[in-house]
Amino acid sequence: MKTRPFISNIELTNDGQLSLFFIGTGNAFTKTAFQTNLLIIKGKSHLLVDCGTLCSYAFENVYNGKITDIKNLLLTHPHADHIGGVEELALAGKYITKRRLNIIITDEFKKALWKESLCGGIQYSEEGKMTFDDYFNQIKPKQILKKPFQMYEAEVENINIKLFRTRHVTTRKDSLKHSQISYGLIIDDRILFTADTQFNRPQLKFLLDNYPKIEVIFHDCDVMGYSRGVHAAYDELVTLPKEIKEKTILCHYSEAVSTIDALVDGFAGLAKHWVYYDFD
Fold first, then answer.
1. What gap in Å lies between CA 111 and CA 145, rounded to an integer?
2. Are 54 and 79 in contact (CB under 8 A)?
3. Please, are residues 280 and 2 in contact by the beta-carbon 8 Å criterion?
4. Do the Cβ atoms of 156 and 104 come closer than 8 Å?
5. Strand 18-22 relative to strand 275-279, pairing
6. What is the pLDDT of residues 170-224, one digit of tens each?
7. Whole-prediction pTM value?
8. SS3 for the chain, per residue?
9. C-alpha dihedral over 218, 280, 9, 64, to 10 degrees?
10. 144-175 pLDDT, tens per residue?
């Protein structure tokens, strides 16, 4: 992996390498690092992972892009810092670009996202009652694993994505059955992005054992541990084995990140916006 700085305009295409660009690296409350929304670029393909309340603002006013240029979307879970900008994308597709947005989404999440989040804002239009499929073109991932947790696989153009169920917000301790829908990602079998998740050492070990080509882990991190049991706390993450920490870059942090030294504690560092992560 190599890094290079953002220069002037956000890229939606490149020369063919796999690249990651964080629109933001912060948690739901930070005002300086936006939110953790991630853009994946590979050749002529792109995929926006999550579109929170600040995503379109950052995309256009910080990185000089056009949010209406986004064609492919994946959502990890339905918190506002991850889906708060999706209504705007849907309406921009209807009225500006005149095309439906491609979205990688399971049937379960599709139903919940529409009924519990999007329906109230975009169900009605001058054309009558709208549905999810009026705004989006579903790319339905194929289930490839049921136990110890559900995993799915999908491709958008030439980007391979594997989604795995995570424990993020649970109503019963350590229960996936009694939890909010949430997914982490494996990108092209090379990058593990946990999105929002509790600390889950067995799941991390399972994924690394079964996908040995994973080079880098971008892991959720609550620096102060206030949301322990919802997010992975820093003092939990530092207990990971040395060989895992050495490939782990922390993201979704608060302004309190200035109180830690991730490199001294054995991690590969902190995720940064204004930077492209390139994988040859």
1. 21
2. no
3. yes
4. yes
5. antiparallel
6. 877 767 777 899 999 999 999 999 999 999 999 999 999 999 999 999 999 999 9
7. 0.96
8. CEEEECCCCCCCCCCCCEEEEECCCECCCCCCCCCCCEEEEECCEEEEECCCCCHHHHHHHHCCCCHHHCCEEECCCCCHHHHCCHHHHHHHHHHHHCCCEEEECCHHHHHHHHHHHHHHHHCEECCEECCHHHHEEEECCEEEECCCCCEEEEEECCEEEEEEECCCCECCCCCCCCECCCEEEEECCCEEECCCCCCCHHHHHHHHHHCCCCCEEEEECECCCCCECCECEHHHHCCCCHHHHCCEEEECECHHHHHCCCCCCCCCEECCECEEEEEC
9. -20
10. 999 999 999 999 989 999 999 999 988 777 67
Where do we find the tokens 């067995």?
202
